[in-house]
Amino acid sequence: MDTVDIRIRKALPEDVPVLRRLIEASVRELQVQDYTPAQMEGALESVFGVDSQLIADGSYLVAEARIAYAVSDSEIISEGKKSGSEWTIAGCGGWSKRKTLYGGDRWTGREDSLLDPRRDAAKIRAFFIHPAWARRGVGSKILEACETAAREAGFTSYEMGATLTGAKLFGAKGYFAVEKIEVPLKNGLSLPVIHMTKRA
After folding, report:
1. 198: which of 56, 116, 156, 160 is 20 to 30 A away, CA to CA?
2. What is the pLDDT of residues 67-102, one digit of tens each?
3. How many of the other CB atoms lie within 10 Å of CB of 129?
4. First to last CA, the chain
5. In this predicted structure, what is the pLDDT of residue 91?
6. What is the 3-state secondary structure (H, E, C) of 121-181?
7. Is 93 helix (H, G, I), strand (E, B) or coil?
8. pLDDT for residue 80
9. Element (H, E) at 23
10. Dihedral sign computed on CA atoms, order 51, 53, 55, 57
């Protein structure tokens, strides 16, 4: 049976065009059970998106994935087969040492002042998985890497503004819902997200 190889690396400025397309696909396909089309489009216009500050801080990650084909050494030698397909960006997500809880570059409610790890929670931010790689462990790998990096930076707790879609994964990973937040959108609607927390 084929398996999935996943590797995590820091996002680079040159990844931004790919990440923008990935975020749009993720929202429009994976959030249809939780948000209306108008909410998704409004969120893509003002809330969801790449946060270039996270990339500059070195705390935004991408998961690259590939299918690892189950072939034997003899097949590789005799038929010239490779042991896996090409790597592709399958998801993204990050953590932050800044006060902003959610929102990409176009979000006006940003607060980029630094947190104090001794009393503040690191922010888990901007998780999006490409629909082709959903439910294959990509989000879990990114989250694990984010929590590890934040812990190494001295943080002892994490918090996030999770989408209704993402809250299912985060709840399974030990995050607790604190309150529901209604994020105002430019089109006059609001986007419900869940403020969630977890101890390191």
Report:
1. 56
2. 887 555 544 443 444 455 789 999 999 999 999 988
3. 28
4. 35
5. 98
6. CEEEEEEEECHHHCCCCHHHHHHHHHHHHHHHCCCCEEEEEEECCHHHHHHHCCCEEEEEE
7. strand
8. 41
9. helix 16-30
10. negative
Contact 150, 98 (CB under 8 A): no
- In the predicted model, what is the mean pLDDT of residues 53-57? 96
CA distance 133 to 26: 10
Contact call for residues 42 and 189 (beta carbons, < 8 A) = yes
Reply yes or no on whether the pLDDT at 111 is more than 50: yes
The C-alpha atoms of residue 108 and residue 97 are separated, in whole angstroms, by 18
C-alpha distances (whole Å) from 53 to each of 81, 123, 126, 165 are 41, 13, 12, 24
Phi, psi of 13 (to 5 degrees): -55, -35
Helix 16-30, helix 37-46: angle, nearest 10? 160
DSSP 14: G
Cβ contact 36:188 at 8 Å: no
Nearest-angstrom CA–CA distance, 50 and 121: 21
Place of tokens 């299912």: 168
CA distance 36 to 28: 10
